[in-house]
Amino acid sequence: MTQPLTIVGLGGSLARSSRSLAALRVALEGAAEAGASTQLLDLRELDLPMYNPDDEREPPLPRRP
Question: Residue 65 sits in which domain range?
């Protein structure tokens, strides 16, 4: 018995109107229609210190452990 393929799409753009994230969603929808199990991991939902082109503030300083 063959297991369905699982595809994880990693969206890394922090821009509000990200075209790459929109394209990723379309690609994942197509993969799901073809029978794959899909999951979108949107980095905007994680609390990571990343560069945001829509944010004009200075980037945060690195934190020491």
Answer: 1-65
Could you read off the pLDDT of 13-62 as tens digits, one per residue? 878 888 999 999 999 999 999 999 999 998 888 777 666 667 667 766 77
Instruction: Find out whether 44 and 11 touch, Cβ atoms under 8 Å.
Output: yes
* CB 7, CB 37: distance < 8 Å: yes
Angstrom distance (rounded) from CA 53 to CA 11: 15
Split into its structural domains, the chain has a count of 1
Give the Cβ contact number of residue 24 at 10 Å.
19
Q: What stretch of H or E contains 21? A: helix 19-33
